[in-house]
Amino acid sequence: MTTGPDNPYGGQDDTNPYGQPSQPQQPTPPPYGAPPPYQQQPYQQPYGQPYQQPYQQPYQQPYGYTPHGQAPQNDGLGIASMVIGIVSLVLMCGYGIGLLGAPAALVMGRISMKRIDRSQGTLGGRGYAQAGFILGIIGTILLVLAIALVVVLIIAATNGAFDDSTY
């Protein structure tokens, strides 16, 4: 005796006595190109698409810092040009002897600024080099004026401008 209706095709009946299938049915995938079924999960990517993060601008290293986050090493030539520039202006009072170092400060400061600019941030101390360059310019101008004054005094002395007999 059977509890359910007979299968007219002769196969095994796959329903249980309560009218429900005895094995769970697999959901059929949507046809190719059809939109995916609506799902109630927030912020879900479209069907079949990988998760994408919003665009973030890549990190750019600030100018003047090494990759390890340390400040770049100062260029020694820039520091030397600043020190020579200061010393030359201070020693200017000692009969102008200190001004002989001013052209050296000017040249060293310019070379150091070029070297720092070419290093693309791995060398620091541009302010020192610039200070030495400016002090070298000032000292060189004062040196040229001092040399011109000495030349004028020598010419005046050889022409007899300082003789007492003319008075």
Task: Report the C-alpha radius of gyration, rounded.
Answer: 45 Å
Largest β sheet strand count, sense and barrel closure: 2 strands, parallel
Secondary-structure-based class equals mainly alpha
Our estimate of the beta-strand percent is under 5%
| Shape assignment | rod-shaped
Tell me the number of helical segments per DSSP (H or I, 4 or more residues long).
3
- Parts with pLDDT < 50 across at least 5 consecutive residues: none
Amount of helix: 25-40%
Let me know the average pLDDT: 76
Number of strands: 2
Strand order of the largest sheet: 1-2
Separation of the first and last Cα atoms: 160 Å
By oligomeric state, this entry counts as single chain
Question: What are the secondary-structure elements, in order, as H or E?
Answer: EHHEH
Could you explain how this protein is built, in words?
With 167 residues, the chain is mainly α. The chain has a domain at 73-158. Helices cover 39% and strands 2% of the residues. It is built from three helices and two strands. It has a two-stranded parallel sheet with strand order 1-2. α1 packs antiparallel against α2 and α1 runs parallel beside α3. It is rod-shaped, with a radius of gyration of 45 Å. The N and C termini lie far apart (160 Å).
Question: TL;DR of this structure?
Answer:
The protein has 167 residues and is mostly helical. 39% of the residues lie in helices and 2% in strands. It has a domain of 86 residues.
Keywords:
167 residues, mainly alpha, two-stranded parallel ribbon, 3 helices, 39% helix, DUF4190, transmembrane, membrane
